């Protein structure tokens, strides 16, 4: 049995009750933290809270060498942990399909995602979000500024009056990333890049969703580029046209101009 458990957004207490019970009843617990991180906790605290040993796998250990996980799941009750919701990443879907090919039963216990948190915290209507995109560090995509694919996604959503959720790059356990480089892209860095393409466009920063010091701020990208939003994780929302209630929400909840 292989159970995928999403740990939620922030720390060891963000997991659902169902997820916590699955972890405590598992024979072995694996995890990956390269697609996202629980920035409000660490491995030692997670293991203490759940009273278990967690075997952390890097990207290669999940995508290229998943056999230790799958071999264990053939005869034991195995849990695989990720931050956020466990099935948002294609990596995890691939692992589930590999398990199915080997006749291993799988189960999914969801966690809160950044996508749903963005709508909840900003007051923007969830059903008005279009395709999401990820803004990479300049060095990561081998070019300058914003990749054309990111620009096209935002422009396409705007043409249909839809909001765009922009995930910001995370570099964890990346052998091609220097230790001296920033690991987490910040919202002001992202706003600086996007302001070159969308200088007078309204955007909303969500920082540390799910944590005790969540911050939400709305302004033009040019203005957000000159502000600091503290520790990670950060994300950006580029709204489409706003409903009256959405305007009121951004004014009241995000201090929009």
Fourth-tier CATH superfamily name of the largest domain: Tetrapyrrole methylase, C-terminal domain
The dominant shape is: elongated
Number of β-strand runs: 10
Query: Briefly, what CATH class of the largest domain?
Result: Alpha Beta
**How much strand content do the residues show?**
15-25%
Helix-strand pattern, N to C? EHEHEHHEHEHEHHEHEEHEH
Q: Domain count, please report it.
A: 2
**Biggest sheet record:** 5 strands, parallel
Q: Mean of the pLDDT scores?
A: 93
Helix content: 25-40%
Cross-sheet strand order for the largest sheet: 3-2-4-1-5
Number of helices: 11
Structural description of this entry:
The model has no long low-confidence stretch (mean pLDDT 93). This protein has helices spanning 17-24, 43-50, 59-63, 67-75, 90-101, 114-122, 138-141, 148-159, 187-195, 221-224, 244-254; strands spanning 2-6, 28-31, 54-56, 78-82, 106-109, 133-135, 164-168, 202-207, 215-220, 234-238. It is elongated. By secondary structure, the protein is of the alpha/beta class. The protein has eleven helices and ten strands. A hairpin with a 7-residue loop joins strand 8 (202-207) and strand 9. The termini are far apart. It folds into two domains: 2-109, Cobalt-precorrin-4 Transmethylase, domain 1 (3-Layer(aba) Sandwich), CATH 3.40.1010; 114-254, Methyltransferase, Cobalt-precorrin-4 Transmethylase, Domain 2. It has a five-stranded parallel beta sheet with strand order 3-2-4-1-5, with helices on both faces.
């Amino acid at each position: 049995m292989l159970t995928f458990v999403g740990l939620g957004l922030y720390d060891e207490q963000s997991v659902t009750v169902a997820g916590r019970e699955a972890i405590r009843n598992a024979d072995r617990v694996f995890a990956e933290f390269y697609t996202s991180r629980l920035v409000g906790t660490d491995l030692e605290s997670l293991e203490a809270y759940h009273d278990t040993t967690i075997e952390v796998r890097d990207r290669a250990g999940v995508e290229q060498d998943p056999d230790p996980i799958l071999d264990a799941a053939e005869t034991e009750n195995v849990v695989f942990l990720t931050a956020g919701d466990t099935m948002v990443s294609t990596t995890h879907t691939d692992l589930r399909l590999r398990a199915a090919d080997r006749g291993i039963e799988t189960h999914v216990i969801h966690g809160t995602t950044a996508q749903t948190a963005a709508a909840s915290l900003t007051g923007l209507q969830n059903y008005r979000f279009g395709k999401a995109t990820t803004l990479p560090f300049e060095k990561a995509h081998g070019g300058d500024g914003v990749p054309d694919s990111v620009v096209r996604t935002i422009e396409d959503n705007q043409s249909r009056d839809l909001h765009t959720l922009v995930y910001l790059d995370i570099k964890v356990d990346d052998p091609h990333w220097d230790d001296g480089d920033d690991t987490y892209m910040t919202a002001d860095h992202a706003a600086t890049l996007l302001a070159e393409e969308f200088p007078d466009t309204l955007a909303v920063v969500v920082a540390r969703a799910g944590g005790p010091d969540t911050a939400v701020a709305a302004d033009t990208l040019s203005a957000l580029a000159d502000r600091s939003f503290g520790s990670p994780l950060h994300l950006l929302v580029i709204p489409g046209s706003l409903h009256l209630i959405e305007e009121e929400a951004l004014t009241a909840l995000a201090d929009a101009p």
